[in-house]
Amino acid sequence: MNFFEGVIDALTTIWANKLRSGLTMLGIVIGVSSVVIMIAIGQGAQSGITEKLQSMGTNLLMVTGGGSSDMRATLRGGGSGKLEYSDYEALLELEGVTGIAPQISSNTQAIYGSTNTSVQIYGILPNYFELKDKEILSGTGLSQADQDERKRVCVIDETAQEDLFGAVDPIGKDIHLDGKIFTIIGVVEGEDGTIFTPLATAQLRLLGSKNINMISVFVTNAEDMDKVQSEIENILLAKHRITDENDADFSVTNQATMLEAMSAITQMLTLMLGGIAAISLIVGGIGVMNIMLVSVTERTREIGIRKAIGAHPNDIMIQFLTESSILSILGGVIGIIMSFIATYLLTSLIGVSTSISIPSIFFAFAFSAFVGIIFGLLPARKAALLETIDALRFE
Amino acid sequence: MTLIKFENIIKTYHLGDQKIEVLRGMSFKIERGEFVSIMGQSGSGKSTLMNIVGLLDIPTDGKYSLDDESVENFNETQLTEIRRRKIGFVFQQYNLLARMNTLEQVMLPLKYQGVPKKERQARAEEALRIVGLSDRMFNRPNELSGGQQQRVSIARAIVTNPEIILADEPTGALDSHTGKEIMELFLNLNRQGRTIVLITHEREIADYAQRIIHIADGKIIENL
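^ inputs. structure came back:
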């Protein structure tokens, strides 16, 4: 009996017990698809976060107000307000940096005519868009004159444009921000729903504060990250007259370090999700074993007949192993197809970012085949070892 | 030429602490081409005898030679191999596989022998022609009468061209008319040179054979 015929026989038997085979496979289908889907969600989260962080630039050091140990600052609202424009000016002496961009931010309502949407306001310097690598799509960016004269002008991003204006050209239009009128001079790429104004304008007219929230330092070479970071700390500690760096009222975040930390967290998340899903695959395998054991008992007489007419115990063993393997492999293939459909639906309907990883498919498939063989082994062995005369007498 | 040779065969079973002697020292010979009936009431040990002859069971003691080969020391693989080539079984309950059609049933023993598919089919068709079932090749057992099912099982037994056909009460489940037809079939097979060992408790059926070995209580009481 060759392999191909054995497979055909097994398929015939599986087909003859459609409902039972289907239910057995369902366990494997759910197991395999949950492994693939869970890993896809984990990987989707990982690549989403990585992409976001990388789009901000990896050679980036972010200086924020409030030290990591400064509880009071944290309680006052994320430690904002501790940095001042003079801190930015002090950092201008740094070497090995491409640029430095201070910013102040807040959330408010933007109103154009009868349209109303909530936006975040970023008060920035003219160098911001270039440093962040954001393209001006129409109109102009912010100029030094806008900053110096504290003009009420703003640049809006694509999402803000869409929300407020739809198809209308926004350049030259006036909008209300926090009750004050601003003129739109440009549209910049971006999908966060952000409106950019000159830093000085935001400080004076919108927030009434001399503080800034964050200073982004763009380091020229990745190798200089640590060096620049400690220079920033030295400059600001000296300027703030703080001797113990543990008392620092600001903190410097290294983008690369953050990226690593986030990757580690999401990777852990992926493994955890995959691991939990793998348990359901094992449960599915036990289902296969269960059904195969029932099948052996039910077909005791058939086994006896086959042995009497010339089947070797190995023939019987192979017959049952083939059946359980095919059940598992078919279940695995269906599970993989299901996971593609499910992740597509998750992404398109709910917007969960997913990324199916090829290794997870191979893993899930190999695991389901493995499950079929391992959990088929016991029933197959039981079938092979049946005594022919006892099996023939079995009613 | 001697095909089957039993020398003082003993078979005991253990049921708990109880020891049951089913065969108590049995010796006989069956020549190639013979048609022999083994007759006895139920409980006489005739089924055990057939299982031993058919290599489905091994004797507790004594010497069994099949075709001049002593079978005592054979392992499972060798026993399977001999059973495959030399023995064809016909059971009282037909023992057909419910899901297969007639042709597939008859092809199955050849499958286990590793015969290529084309040859398998040709030989199965030939065997079905011999038992007169050429027009029932694609029916399943539940679409066949008892007599037809028994013919399928005879075709399955002869398709491998075995040395011996072992038939255990082959007419037991059939009416007397159909039973006669089946016995005629065995006679024909015997005329074509096949060795047939028939197990039965009915004198009428046993009389079809050239020789009757009459057993009772695990011993031969008459060997005519």
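Chain B touches chain A at residues 51, 54, 56-57, 76-77, 80, 83-84, 89, 91, 95-97, 99, 108-109, 111-114, 117, 156, 160 (CB under 8 Å). Chain B has one domain: 31-59+73-223.
thumbs up if we can close this ticket
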